[in-house]
């Protein structure tokens, strides 16, 4: 419930309800021009962002897409079906159709999705009266006739899309619109942010967390870094401070050698998300008083750790830490 204050008068105004209609294929191809992994977009986050921008109440999200033929490529088919199932688990209504085969051209095309979206927008506003506003996530001008019908009936359609592929006809002033830029989409990526601390020294030694058989959570890795994911509202520095206290039982203020090293991003295909690793280094001597509450600490040579059963991303981080220490030692020897 929103309200407007006027001199001597307080007027309560109920936010209008909105249903978001996502043209999956159109959005994917338009977004690919500005972000690398449009398939990693959190559509609930994106829908919330759009509704908040226009001062609307999100009622429902509907996603429309064509399904590839299993006979063409089983791997692609099952990946696509897993993607749609993840959307359903998030409460998003998924509507799909099979690709239509054009025998003469020996190709398959998406057919009927636009008609499905247009008819559903009209049904949800004019017939079932479930919302006052339709938010169309697409840059396709073919929707204009349906949008005009909805507008003539005193309802509204707002259209949103990345600029690439966003038809000029949709941006001529007849309908409100929003150009989704790179920053908007990146904020809505399925992104897990992590803060890690790696104690090391000039002898190319590091302290890792022994995991397999030493921590409660399931794992197939022998070792890993100390640290963990950011909680809602936390900064990287706040998360690191909390994780150091939780896992090492140390006050971060006592680690004088603490310094930021590097941020990494990689795709976790198992979890269908991007992961951001924020890596901090410190000298081993500053954590000798640590009391590890989860797992067991182990000191290893970096080369030994790299050749052990750890993730490929952890190996990459350790290789770059090795190079960093090596370069630092070279500078010291030259001086």
Protein described:
The structure is a single chain. This protein is α/β, with parallel strands linked by helices. The protein folds into two domains: 175 residues, 3-Layer(aba) Sandwich (Rossmann fold), CATH 3.40.50.1010; 144 residues, Nucleoside Triphosphate Pyrophosphohydrolase (Alpha-Beta Complex). The chain contains nine helices and 17 strands. Strands 5-4-3-8-9-10 form a six-stranded parallel beta sheet, with helices on both faces. Strands 14-11-16-15 form a four-stranded mixed beta sheet, sandwiched between helices. β4, α3 and β5 form a beta-alpha-beta unit. α4 packs parallel to α5. The N terminus is likely disordered.
Percent in strands: 25-35%
Overall structural class, as computed from helix and strand content, comes to: alpha/beta
**Considering the protein shown, what is the CATH homologous superfamily of the largest domain?**
5'-nuclease
Instruction: Please state the overall shape, judged from the principal axes of the Cα atoms.
Output: elongated
Total of helices:
9
H/E series, N to C?
EEEHHEHEEEHEHEEHEEEEHEEEHH
Quick one: biggest sheet?
A: 6 strands, parallel
Q: Major sheet: order of its strands?
A: 5-4-3-8-9-10
Counting structural domains, the number is 2
Assembly type of the chains comes to single chain
Low-confidence stretches: 1-6
CATH class of the largest domain: Alpha Beta
Mean pLDDT, to the nearest integer, reads: 88
**Amino- and carboxy-terminal Cα gap:** 67 Å
Overall CATH architecture of the largest domain: 3-Layer(aba) Sandwich
Helix content: 25-40%
Count the beta strands. Answer: 17
What fold name stands as the CATH topology of the largest domain? Rossmann fold
Rg computed from alpha carbons, rounded to a whole number of angstroms: 26 Å
